[in-house]
UniProtKB/TrEMBL annotation:
GO terms for molecular function: kinase activity. The lineage of its organism: Bacteria, Pseudomonadati, Acidobacteriota, Terriglobia, Terriglobales. It comes from Tunturiibacter gelidiferens. The keyword Transferase applies. This is NBD/HSP70 family sugar kinase. Keywords: Kinase, Transferase.
């Protein structure tokens, strides 16, 4: 399975990364926060 698209949601103190496969299913969902 390969990554079809990547989405990034930018916030003030954190951001989220979501990777979707070719079929539209979520492959990766990760939250990063600033310390």
């Amino acid at each position: 399975m390969q990554i079809g698209s990547v989405g990034i949601d930018l916030g003030k103190t954190s951001f989220h990364v979501v990777a979707l496969g070719d079929n539209g299913k979520v492959l990766l969902k990760k939250k990063f926060s600033q310390k």
